[in-house]
Amino acid sequence: MTLHPRWIRRSGPPLPAFLADRIAAPLDARTGQHRTAAILGDETPPADAVRMQSNDYLSLARDPRIALAKSRALLRQGHGDAVSRVFTHHKPDAHRAFERRMARLLGVEDSVLTMSGYSANVGLIQALAAPDTPVYVDKMAHASLWDGITSAGATPIAFAHNDVADLAAKIAATGPGLILVDALYSQNGNLCPLRDMVDTAETTGCALVVDETHSFGCHGPDGAGLCAALGLDDRVHFRTIGLSKAMAARGGIVAGCAQAMSFLRFEARPMIFSTSVLGYEIAGFEATLDIFRDEPQRRRALAHNHRCLRTGLAALGYDVSESDSQILSILIGDDDTTIAFRKALVAEGVVGSVFCAPAVPRGRAIIRLTVNAGMTAQDITRVFAAFERLTAMPRLAA
Hints:
By secondary structure, the protein is of the alpha/beta class. The chain is 41% helix and 13% strand.
């Protein structure tokens, strides 16, 4: 007889029934594995597979210059003080120097370094929004922005994706507040109509927060992001950046006016109750920004590879029409179809990411392909060949 996972005791005391039921609900009764694990898969791809699941857009994760900068700093100073930045905010240290460099790059007065892009978003919204603050959020905005609203005790007011008219109508009904958008949406790779969002914020008295996590490094002068590329530096109130994408590191940035950044340092709970990124990581950040500045050909290669893949996949009948940048999403559908498609794709030597519930609505799972600057013409040809062989597999219409 197959035992329900709630009755499988590995160690420690038995869980209370209410907790055991909650934990067991998404688990397979036979294996005890979470159902999402089966969708994501654990197959070992061929050694020469084309890997398109990384967010290392500019192919810098293995760059020896960055590794050398970090290793030198680590040997020189060790890990450094792993303490909350509240206690070191006044020091003229590497952290503060990097914040000032980021502010100059982004064209703002100041920036604050956080432990991750997630903590940047949660901390900023938690610090800015009171429980009665209207917070208008794009339905496809990153989960960390939504969690920031929850942390603030505010009520989200969702507007249709990239729909400025819907946003304006909701503001007219409720009043000024915060507007939260991504510059580049990580699910489907499309861009926010930032000029229209800025105009709406200005005419309605709202403050605009733009998450530049997926556009930073890939757009704008020296990789400064989409706001900089569009000349909107001085018209966007706040920008947040996760450093885990084009910078291939960990950490986050909030950028804005000096007064707001000073406020944030002592009001955002992640800043107060989490330790800082470590000193040797800052050395890696600095080396990466040098490469952003000195090697614009990486951004050109990324854009070229995206255009080639988008055009080729569309010619094969895959709907990638929403993709404006280095992310290509293909709607697959239900869990069983997604598992079959993912396995077939890995067998063909192409590895993408699977997005399933709760990241996307249940029954509308996607295969997400992330393009990188290091992809060769041979890599792109292999991707086309793999998807051409999979065209007969069932997929839901977009």
